[in-house]
Amino acid sequence: MNMQAPVTKSPDSKIPASKATNHDAQPVAAKTGLAALWRPALVQAFVKLDPRQLHRAPVMLVVELTAVLTTVLCLIPDPAVPTSVAVQIAIWLWFTVLFANFAEALAEGRGKARADSLKAGSEGLKARIQGANGSYEMVNAATLRKGDVVRVEAGELIPGDGEVIEGIAAVNEAAITGESAPVIRESGGDRSAVTGNTRLVSDWLLVRISANPGESTLDRMIALVEGAKRQKTPNEVALDILLIGLTLIFLLVVVTLQPFAHFAGGNLPLVFLVALLVTLIPTTIGGLLSAIGIAGMDRLVRLNVIAKSGRAVEAAGDVHVLLLDKTGTITFGNRRCAAVYSAPGATPKELSEGTLLASLADDTAEGKSIVEYLRGQHPMTEPAPSQLTAVPFTAETRLSGVDFEGRVYRKGAVDSLLKFLGRDRSDLPPVLAREIDKIAKTGGTPLLVCGDGKLLGAIHLKDVVKPGIRERFEELRKLGIRTVMVTGDNPLTAAAIAAEAGVDDVLAEATPEKKLERIRQEQNDGRLVAMCGDGANDAPALAQADVGMAMNDGTQAAREAANMVDLDSDPTKLLDVVQIGKELLVTRGALTTFSIANDVAKYFAILPALFAAIYPQLGVLNIMHLASPQSAILSAIVFNALIIVVLIPLALRGVRVQAASAAHLLRRNLLVYGLGGLVVPFVGIKVIDLLLTALHLV
Amino acid sequence: MHGYDYLLILAFFALVLLPAPLLGRFYYNVMEGQRTFLTPVMGPVERICYRLSGVDPTVEHNWKTYTIALLAFNLAGFVVLFAILLLQGSLPLNPQGLPGMEWSLAFNTTMSFVTNTNWQSYSGEASLSYLSQMAGLTVQNFVSAATGIAVLVAFCRGISRRSTQHLGNFWADMTRATLYGLLPLCLVLALLLVWQGVPQTFAHYVDAVTLQGTDQTIPLGPAASQIAIKQLGTNGGGFFGVNSAHPFENPTIWSNLFELVSIILIPVALVFTFGHYVKDMRQSRAIIACMLALFLIGGATAMWSEYQPNPALNIASVEQAAPMEGKETRFGTTATVLWAATTTAASNGSVNGMHDSLNPLTGMIALANMMVGEVIFGGVGAGLYGMLLNVLIAVFLAGLMIGRTPEYLGKKLQAREVKLLVATLIVMPVGVLVFGALAATLPGPAGAVSNPGAHGFSQLLYAYTSATANNGSAFGGFSANTPFHNLMLGLSMFIGRFGYILPVLALAGSLAAKKSSPLGQNSFPTHGPLFVTLLTVTILLVGGLTFLPTLALGPIAEHLSLGF
């Protein structure tokens, strides 16, 4: 594509996020539905017949070789096998390979569509690189190396992942996060990381590039969803070895059958032996393994999480302990008003009026939550803002409030307000003092309110646990995963919130060192730990954790240390990542079990057919009463090919993992995929046999 | 079946299952060098052994050193035994003046005893001097069984230890297994057998005149001592050619019961030893349950099959009991079938009847017991480590379905482990199918069978299965003593033994080096009925998928052809 250098373009925030960078970007992002993907996938299925691509799926390579062999055998007439049957077997063998290729291409297509939309615009991007003498020159963004410093002006695209070393600017990250509100990026602090391909909407930045070409977050993501480049995950490698082993065993079984048949004085048609081999080797899982892996990564990508390796995603399924920051994950970021308590001598009406007035001009989230609370509890006619004289919070007074019609309303921390009133802690009425103690003990923050020098009462501010989070933790507990809440709060406060949120453990007064130590300790006990973080001081812990998820709006240090980045900066997603990791593993296991269990029925179809000429008595093994030896073998082959197609949706969607104990999951999945794998092919092969016979194909 | 048949079965299970847990704990204490009631007697002997050989039993080996020590020891044993067999004509304790063995037979015999197979292409009384029997074969009977125990405990340590290279000291393991594990029990069994009339003498063979007036040479020898270890060490190599069907090797119904129980006593006990190693007896119970399930499925099928009336006699109006061809009248059908099922399940290979004469499906059970890899109790040590390999395969296959990387007792199964598992999975198909196919294809070797057709195929299949599974029992009707079969069967025994031992020790090393994740609600449950079912089905599936076609061409075809 011949792209204009975006630096010459003016900022145009009205262009929809996903296309913001590209004048003729193909609207791929919209085309992630299966309907739009099957056509290119079909083409890809043929392209992937290339053995150089197929060698990544050894089982399917074997099937392709047998397909070639059978095709050749079709030309050499065998009196024992009608040519029409041989041709049909050859065709179905080719279909088997094509179906598997199609599954992989389909999975790739979805991931790639998303990746392409993210990548769009990075081609042809120019960068203003800082030379040795401080001057700038324009270079192609693709040539930027780690450590290069570039200057980005308002309206330009940031040419690569990096860290802000100078300047402050608003950045529109819609291209990767889909969130259109610009975010502030500045040097130092926790908001210094920028992502390539996002647009500066104001000011300028000096950015030090942190990734070489091909190593950026985006490149990594694309690599995860491309079959040919994808690195196999550890579990997948192990499973691959088992599948190769099984293939080898079945190869020995089939190859030695001919000598044994000769010993018995018979001869087995080569085409039938080939058919037996293909039905026995684990083609179902062998054909879908790659698609399962890609689809798993794709689910992650669609969650807007970028994993740097598939290994981390798999590890997410294995974690024992989740370290979760309290703020933003377990609770909303801000404290909210939960109750008000009146002081002796103040009526509830006085209290609520006074509290409302003291908070009306308060723009903080806490202030707003008080107003919201009181509007719900005690509706009253509120004065117009113009009638109020706002008294904002200052570090000196540590109070805020309003002056209204000559009256002074203030609210603030207990000691500050008492000081304002010129009183002492011991002057507090005992009733109120008790309430205040109680609030503090349950992890809340007590505020006092006064109106015209009179103590009106106390406000209970508390951390509000996100709705539904307790249930999430409950599910995790059923899966055997413990949650540890990490917070800077004192142990008392922390324990109160922990109890409310239903976490298993608390790390209170947490420092980065304490976090790191906790992770090491868990790992020494053999546990796998997942955590998320954003600050630079989180980086060591993120690196130490088995699964570390960094927030996209965090620091570059955190993003580099973590093995996943959440583009939406939502720490709760760690829970979804665990789910995806588990689904990935369960799907593989389920289809492996299914594939192997299938072989029993195939034996009952093929063995009597194969040995019919040598030992006709073995016909009693034909318990499905298949019409003829030819139809039996062909039915088994057809079933073997079609089952791949039938299972593609499951492979792409993944097997759901309910929150339950391992024993429960095992029982359920063994029943569905193990027992199902035994029974289904008996039915399937019989039905296909009936159809083939009815259509006079054999 | 009669009342006494049921009594025999009951006595058999009681004598095996009741003492096994205690014996299992004893083995654990012994192998870990803890004090037992035998320490006052054996302790000094043990220390003398270490001092003489310069071994420090406290120095532990990593898996490579352990493996090298094991291989060196077995190689030395091989060389010594091979030399004795070739040169026995010029060696002492040869009252009959028997000549040295032919080299291919000597190779086969040596391999057979070193690998705990005890396949015998010879007849003991006609080919072996007392020295060969005692100093040659009996020694290997002991050390090959001890080797099995050593490999097993190394594997147990690999599973139960964490983040370590140490698997124990091979020399200490061998010494303890022999001195405490095998010798005392053998002494007891040998005395019991002598009591029942088994000879234990260096005297010449006895020349006698029979009632018919013909001369007969009655062979004698130090039989009881060798029979004790051949039963207890799952060796199975008879002192006399017809093994425990010989009246001097197995004279009475009592000696029959003792020998039968001895076949699987130690293999069962070792399952409990495993439970002590991993500090979780539920694991032992699950494995025992699976072994028992497989044993009962096979045993019941064999028993049912053997009591079927002969279809060829259906037209004649005769009352049919079970067929007695190839069986000892002293023992009868039940005792023979029970022995056949036990000896093939437990990699022993001694026989008290002719397997060639069993009904086809009974013979198939004997074959199937071996084909699943001798894991139904199996050989001493070898059976359990073989079973644990199946456990790992079951865990890997189904373990993913709980959404975690498969783990056994906290140890992750990853690419390296699966690679080693697959290596062991290939052994049986290569030994039985590939070597068997070679034997069936070449015109000379294929002529070794005495019957054509499906039964002849069973004979050939049985020989190669028995050798690869290190069982050593013979179907009969198969002329194995030819250079081709001696060498090929020897090779089968070799891969069947070391094709497992090497991957198992490598696995032990790799598992020992791993951290172990704590077991909890989200760990794969490896105990309880669900897992037992999974394990049993996995074993049947892996074995069945590999060998069903050959079984169809052998016993199944024969069964159907005979009109059963």
From TrEMBL, chain A:
It is an enzyme of class 7 (translocase). It is found in: Cell membrane; Membrane. The keyword Ion transport applies. CDD domains: P-type_ATPase_K. GO terms for cellular component: plasma membrane. It holds the Pfam family E1-E2_ATPase. Residues 130-226 form the P-type ATPase A domain. The system is composed of three essential subunits: KdpA, KdpB and KdpC. Part of the high-affinity ATP-driven potassium transport (or Kdp) system, which catalyzes the hydrolysis of ATP coupled with the electrogenic transport of potassium into the cytoplasm. This subunit is responsible for energy coupling to the transport system and for the release of the potassium ions to the cytoplasm. NCBIfam families: ATPase_P-type (TIGR01494), kdpB (TIGR01497). HAMAP family: KdpB. This is Potassium-transporting ATPase ATP-binding subunit.
UniProtKB/TrEMBL annotation, chain B:
Keywords: Cell membrane, Ion transport, Membrane, Potassium, Potassium transport, Transmembrane, Transmembrane helix, Transport. The keyword Oxidoreductase does not apply. It comes from the Bacteria. It holds the Pfam family KdpA. It is a multi-pass membrane protein. GO terms for molecular function: P-type potassium transmembrane transporter activity; potassium ion binding. The chain crosses the membrane at residues 6-28, 68-91, 137-156, 177-198, 253-274, 286-304, 375-400, 420-442, 487-509, 530-557. Its main location: membrane. InterPro entries: KdpA (IPR004623). GO terms for cellular component: plasma membrane. It is found in: Cell membrane. Belongs to the KdpA family. Part of the high-affinity ATP-driven potassium transport (or Kdp) system, which catalyzes the hydrolysis of ATP coupled with the electrogenic transport of potassium into the cytoplasm. This subunit binds the extracellular potassium ions and delivers the ions to the membrane domain of KdpB through an intramembrane tunnel. The system is composed of three essential subunits: KdpA, KdpB and KdpC. This is Potassium-transporting ATPase potassium-binding subunit. It comes from Pseudomonas graminis.
